[in-house]
Amino acid sequence: MAAGPLTFEPVQADLYPAYGLGRAAAAAGGTAPTAFNAANEVAVELFLAGKIRFGRIAETIAQVLDAHHAGPAGSLESVLAADAAARRLAREAACS
Questions:
Q1: DSSP structural state of residue 86
Q2: pLDDT on residue 2
Q3: Which among 9, 71, 80, 90 is least buried, having the fewest CB atoms inside 10 angstroms?
């Protein structure tokens, strides 16, 4: 099956704020990407359950990243701890 040519455009950050948050978390490194992912998963879960509006997903992620103190991701324990803390913060932020 052949496909037509693919064209890629720059991401419009104002339309997709979570994209920029993810890029910033990746650039920060350490446990920041873990916190981003955990917050995103919780926020999307809450959205799909009808508990928050779509626009609240990126807001929740931003609140979690602002509160997260990124540390080194040198062990499974540090990553799991960051994940658990970010999930807790995301539930608190989204539901407040």
A1: H
A2: 81
A3: 9
Angle between helices 56-67 and 32-48 (to 10 degrees): 150
Axis crossing angle, helix 56-67 with helix 76-94, rounded to the nearest 10: 130
Residue with tokens 């062990």: 75
User: Which of 29, 88, 93 shows the shortest CA–CA distance to 61?
Assistant: 93
Query: What pTM did the predictor assign?
Result: 0.89
What's the longest Cα–Cα distance across the chain?
49
57: enclosing H helix or E strand: helix 56-67
61: tokens are 């992620």
Q: Which domains does the chain have, with CATH numbers?
A: 18-94 (1.10.1740.10)
